[in-house]
Amino acid sequence: MTGHREPTVVGVPNFNAMEDAATLRAAMKGFGTDEQAIIDILTSRSNAQRQAISQAFTHEYGRDLIEDLKSELGGHFEDVIVALMLPPEEYLCKELNKCMEGLGTDESVLIEILCTRTKKEIADIVQAYERLYDRPLAEHMCSETSGDFRRLLTLIVTRAPQGARDEEAGVDAARAAESAQQLYDAGEAKWGTDEEVFNKILAHESFAQLRLIFEEYKNIAGRTIEQAIKAEVDGELKDAYSAIVECVQSAAAFFARRLRAAMQGLGTDDTTLIRVFVSRAEVDLAAIKREYERLYDKTLESEIRGETSGDYKRALVALLGPA
């Protein structure tokens, strides 16, 4: 996961929160709602700018912007707009909570959110989760998952502040060779797989360091880490390991595949579409767009236009930015 960002949403220069708040108020006042005005403003402002609009709105009108939007909008369009209005870590906490509440847990959401984020992002999520739900994320996750999969996720979230996924530390070639040997010894070199070793390395090392480790692994094992994971591991743990490996190679390709899966088959997984669009728009949605076209020979925009409709479609297309 390289440091350069490829966002589709960067905010606007000469931003004026008060003006935007007034435009939004006018769009929702009286009969009917001007959905296009809402789309134009909220899909082009950065999250920090949206927070400023929200404050200006309350200051000026004594009203809660999110509540007003909820009462005026509906369906998946409302979901996109409300998601855009939340601070990023709060939005992801809500998604994590939603995937664990009720019957059954959607492990793919846990994997998508937790296995693909940097240490700093995870630390923000962990902090926000406890603030919002009054219980630690690790504890909630432990009650909803099991086995080595649970241990991996717990390592990712509990070590966050002290050193899991240390992105700042630079890379260390000698240590990478050591880790690669440990992975080889824990997997292919013996009967059965020692998941503890895999968990420790895959949860803790930075994406840049993991890239080196995986290259070394190939030299030692004569096959790629993906091939080893497919052969040695199964179930959710395999999916989690694979997500980490994919993100090390190309986070954009991981999310492109995630979007493809959300649009394939019967019905559309709108929650995933919205989550990927909203959570990656200021990170790498431009790169995801490019990867999507490379992998599937179709533009992401044409796929979205085919899968969605109305204001919901217009909002997603606006987040994608110009072709």
Automatic annotation (TrEMBL):
Domain of life: Eukaryota
GO molecular function term, any single one: calcium ion binding
Database matches in InterPro entries: Annexin, Annexin_repeat, Annexin_repeat_CS, Annexin_sf
A Pfam cross-reference name: Annexin
Cellular component, GO, one term: nucleus
PROSITE patterns: ANNEXIN_1 (PS00223), ANNEXIN_2 (PS51897)
Keywords: Annexin, Calcium, Calcium/phospholipid-binding, Repeat
Domain topic, free-text comment: A pair of annexin repeats may form one binding site for calcium and phospholipid.
Similarity field: Belongs to the annexin family.
PANTHER family referenced in this protein's UniProt entry, alphabetically: ANNEXIN, ANNEXIN B10
Name of the featured protein: Annexin
Upper taxonomic lineage: Eukaryota, Metazoa, Ecdysozoa, Arthropoda, Hexapoda
